[in-house]
Write a structure and sequence with these properties.
homodimer; about 120 residues; Jelly Rolls; 1 helix; 8 strands; about 5% helix
């Protein structure tokens, strides 16, 4: 029952698209991740995902629109919905999603992270 | 799939200890709430609770310690653990918890909110 300082967690790593687990509750993980560049189009068959922006501007691309998410804002991507996170500059994010969630969803490639570090 | 601006949601109400639902995912609710004063000692039999501080200083009292949680920090209170949120001045919070979670947990009193507004 210690508190978690989000900025302190984010200061512990500098690689992109490699989420760390910073909290766990009710079968869900809280993850911290830094983004830069384009991710891959994917969806999650069974998991909704919440992206809370801490720093920078996240462009969440959907097949029919783009939503820009700023610090102090979040977006929930429902299961089954194709999306592609894009970070033109560095973006810091907090994710809330089921522990079962794979970062690349239905796609498996060099960016897939099956084992996440807890920090 | 619209984004949610946390400050904008918090600007829509001014009462205390009356959470509003601002997001839903995987059977969990995201709630925005303003606190001022002491809440009641309670626990949740089946739900872990996450408190993310947006503004102000939250004092989370446990039976054996007090944790001060500041903006940009969160604390997870595991199921079964007695706690009492205290806000000496106004505090703005984002909560993440199962949709089944009752604000006063095992206690029912004048502060219990069984039906929450979605905003």
């Amino acid at each position: 029952m210690d508190k978690v300082n989000i900025a302190e967690k984010l200061s512990q790593f500098n690689d992109y698209y490699n989420p760390r687990i910073v909290g766990e509750l009710n079968g869900q993980y809280v993850k911290a991740v830094k983004l830069k560049g384009e991710f891959v189009w994917h969806h999650h068959d069974n998991e909704d995902e919440l992206f809370l922006v801490i720093k920078g501007k996240l462009k969440m691309e959907f097949r029919d629109k783009i939503v820009e998410v700023m610090p102090g804002e979040f977006i929930i991507v429902p299961k089954g919905v194709e999306h592609k996170p894009v970070a033109e500059d560095e973006v810091h994010i907090l994710l809330f999603e089921p522990a079962s969630t794979l970062n690349t969803g239905n796609v498996e490639n060099e960016r897939t992270r099956k084992v996440l570090e807890k920090i």
